[in-house]
Amino acid sequence: MTMKIDILTLFPEMFAPLEHSIVGKAQEKGLLEINYHNFRQNAEKSRHVDDEPYGGGQGMLLRVQPIFDTMAKIQADKPRVLLLDPAGRKFDQAYAEELAQEDQLIFICGHYEGYDERIKTLVTDEVSLGDFVLTGGELAAMTVVDATVRLIPEVLGKESSHQDDSFSSGLLEYPQYTRPYDFRGMTVPDVLMSGHHENIRRWRLEQSLRKTWQRRPDLLDHYQLSPEEAELLEKIKTQDRENEERND
Length: 248
Description:
- The chain is of the alpha/beta class.
- It contains seven helices and ten strands.
- The strands form three sheets. A five-stranded parallel sheet has the order 2-1-6-5-8, sandwiched between helices. A three-stranded mixed sheet has the order 3-4-7, with no helix packed on it. A two-stranded antiparallel ribbon has the order 9-10.
- Helix 3 crosses helix 4 and helix 6 packs across helix 7.
- The termini are far apart.
């Protein structure tokens, strides 16, 4: 099955990075098809895609007609249509996993001050990367595409390649090392050199919990700890308290 992605944008050239690396290879393998649609080409009013808002106000708004007419030319059967908007649902790993199950995604990238509200009648999802504003939706769309495409079966070669990623399990990823063993006095933890798979698994789990507790404790609010994880987390908290007491 090939995932089809259509992107409505005023700047198709901005998406050149998607022709490289993992996303580019997914297209070469036939696992992904990406089409770009410059909706300026479908604007009726002298190629103008924006206009002043009714009622006055700052900035310009994307006009509804170029978007509607561009969408009408895209062959689609109940696609997921995503509007990149700061007011939308915050994008995260769970959202990427959800989108990776779709056969077709359509992205609408805006510019200027905002959109004619009627554009949203075409939309199934309003998506935001976070509490900040970009100059256009292209960078946000690329981010969503990249995070989603890598989850499509066979894109990474092995499904397990992404299962240990930060956020995929609900925890941040444990530290990782490669050659050389000793670099300028900085050595690889001995447990990773031991060949003892159970000790390595437990060390990685503890490090993942430690990193999450120290850097993103909010993730633990909605994470269901196993008995082993609860034991390790309590150990980590005790060690942190003891370190704080020694430093006081």
